[in-house]
Design a protein that fits this description.
- The protein has 178 residues and is mostly helical.
- It has one domain.
- The chain has helices spanning 3-34, 39-52, 56-62, 67-95, 97-112, 114-119, 124-130, 133-143, 147-176.
- The model has no long low-confidence stretch (mean pLDDT 90).
Length: 178
């Protein structure tokens, strides 16, 4: 691989990791610090968000974080994970000729089906709710869907699940600890 191609690949990968770090770590911690919230509780929510995604919201609330902060922090973390995974995969796709060939082959198969090509991206919404971002981001990249559209649809699915989880958590806490 040429030096210019290597630099482009590294730039793409570092940009993806940078977005992940900014959205998943820095933004939630700065928000917690600015609002004088517990940084240890915010760190616990960040760590749990990488494992259980919107399930981290009840953990954050149980540790004393306000529900709105827990919801917004979890959403920011999810966005960082999506952009980080997509960007790193994109860097791999440009760096490896074998991966690029596989992607071309996969995308040709996807584009054969007009229905899947046009409406398949909408499947990211329920997949996000049921399985999570760790499938949505690679699927979007693999099928060659527009990154922006895939991100918006994935985050819409996440937002529905996260808001429902937040409201359920608030309701359970209100019911048991009146």
């Amino acid at each position: 691989m040429e030096r210019a191609a290597e630099l482009t690949t590294l730039r793409t990968a570092f940009k993806a990791v940078g977005w992940c770090v900014l959205l998943a770590f820095i933004l939630p911690l700065v928000g917690a610090y600015t609002c004088t919230l517990s940084l240890s509780a915010a760190c616990a929510q960040i760590a749990s968000a990488f494992l259980i995604e919107y399930g981290s919201i009840p953990i954050g609330i149980a540790l004393g974080l306000p529900p709105l902060y827990a919801l917004l922090a979890a959403t920011s973390i999810e966005a960082g994970i999506f952009l980080g995974i997509f960007g790193v995969l994109d860097a791999i796709g440009t760096a490896s000729g074998r991966v690029a060939g596989f992607l071309d082959w996969t995308r040709k198969i996807v584009h054969r089906s007009k229905i899947f090509d046009h409406y398949g991206i909408l499947g990211l919404f329920p997949i996000e709710i049921l399985i999570g971002v760790y499938l949505c981001s690679p699927a979007s990249w693999l099928f060659g869907w527009n990154k922006g559209r895939a991100f918006v649809i994935t985050m819409a699915g996440y937002w529905v699940a996260a808001v429902a989880t937040t409201l359920a958590t608030i309701g359970i806490i209100h019911f048991f600890f009146r």
